[in-house]
Amino acid sequence: MRILTTADRLSLRGGLERVHLEVNRSLAQRGHVIDLLYSAPGEATDSWFSFVRRSAPVRCVARRQLRGAPSLVGTLIRAAAFGARSRPDVIYSPRHTHLVHALTVGAVSRAPVVCHLHSPPPRAQLTRAQRVVLGRVRRFVAVSNFTAAQWVSAGIPEDRVSVVHNGVDIRRFQPLTEGELGATRRQLGIDPATRVVLYAGRLDPRKGIDVLLEAWKLLSTELDGARLVVAGAPSEYLGERGDALLEGWRHRCDPATTVLLGHTPDPIAVYEAADLVVVPSVWTDPFPLAVLEAMAVGVPVVASRVGGIPEALGARFRSHLVEPGRPAELAAKVRELIDWRTRSPRLGHACRDHVLTHFTLDRMVERLEALFVRAVLHHKSMASTFEPRRGSNTRQ
Q1: Residue 204: phi, psi to the nearest 5?
Q2: pLDDT in tens, 355-366
Q3: Cα 282 to chain center, whole Å?
Q4: Phi/psi at 223 (nearest 5 deg)?
C-alpha cells in the first residue's frame, strides 16, 4: 500500500510527533511505501528520511500557519503536484489542522483521507464550513474513547470514528536492573540513592506545570534528598510567551531540589531514572504518551483524572488518579507511592504488564493498518459504483 502522510516540523518535541514517526516507520517495515509532505525539517529529519520513499517540504501544512490566500493557493498547488507524483492509495493526516492539504492531495490522487484525532475538536460545535471539510474524510481515528465522544458531540458522524489507543515500542522501553538504574542516574548527574519524581513532556500551562510546582513545594521538605526532574521545553506554538513562562517556572524552582533538563529528544533514559512519573494535566488531555512510556519501563504514574488518561491507566491503576488542579492531592499521592520499590516491589512489573497487554506499538499499528485497508477498499467500491459500464450509451 502506498501511504502519503503529512507532518509539521519534523521534531520530537511531543508525544504526537513521536507516535507519528514510530507508526510510519513500522508501516514501512511492514512493506508499505511511505511518502511525506511536511512543513520544515527538525531533529527527526534523518529518522524520517531513513524510510520514506520521497518527501517534499511544503510550507504551512498546518492550517494555523497559513497567512493569506496567496500563501494558501501556492502551498496547495505544490501539495497537489506532490500527490500526483506519489499516486498514494491513502492519505494519512495526523492532525485535523492538516486537512486542507490532505484533502487537496486526496482529490488530485483520488485517494481516501484518514485523519488521526490526537486532540479535542476546535470548538464544542463545529461550524458549517468545518462540517463540510470534515465530511470529506473517509475515516477518523481517535486516540481515546473520550476524544472520540468529544468529536461526535461536536458534529462528526459516529459511524466514521474508530478508537485506536496509542502504543509503545516495548523493545525500546524496558525496565532496568538496580545496577543499571544507578548508572543511568549518574549519567544525568543525579545521586543513585536519590528518589526521583519526573515530569516529561511539553512545558505548557495546560499540562499542569504550575500545579506540579506547587505540589513539589509541599513535598520537597518532607522527601529529604528527593529530586523533581522536569524534562521538556515549551510548546512551539507558544512562541515568545513560552520563553516567558519557562523563565517564570525557573524562578519558582529550588535548584537544590529541582532539575530542569530541557528538551530530551529520546526520553527513555529519563524515564528509566525515575521512581515515579507525574502527568498533572489540567485540560482534557486526549491520551498522553508519557503514561505508557513510563509504565513500559516499569515506573508507576500519578496522573490527573481528565480526558483519556483514565483509559490509559485502566481499572488496575485507577487509584493513581487525582483531581486536576489540586496540588495538595497530587502531593499526597506522590508521597503515598514514591517508596514503592521497597514497599511494593511488584508494582513496577504490574505497570509493564499493563502496557504489554493493552498498549504496544505493534497492536496500534496493526489496527491502523487494517483501517487503512478498509478505507481504500471502501473508496474503490464507491468509485466503481459511479463509473459507467464500458459500452454503455451514456451521453457525455
Answers
A1: -145, 135
A2: 999 999 999 999
A3: 17
A4: -90, 80
Distance CA 28, CA 19 (A): 14
Cβ pair 36, 9 in contact under 8 A: no
Q: What is the per-residue burial (b if ≥16 Cβ within 10 Å, else e) of 91-121?
A: bbbbbbbbbbbbbbbbebbebbbbbbbbbbb
What's the CA gap between 391 and 381, in Å, rounded? 20
- The 10s digit of each residue's pLDDT in 215-254 is 999 998 888 889 999 998 887 777 778 888 888 888 888 8
> For residues 16-43, b (16+ Cβ closer than 10 Å) or e, as one string?
bbbbbbbbbbbbbeeebbbbbbbbbebe
Against a cut of 0.70, is the pTM above it? yes
C-alpha cell of residue 142: 481517535
Q: Which residues pair with 77 in a beta bridge?
A: none
Distance CA 84, CA 81 (A): 5
Q: Is pLDDT at 200 greater than 60 in this prediction?
A: yes
Helix (H/G/I), strand (E/B), else coil: 342: helix
pLDDT value at residue 102: 95
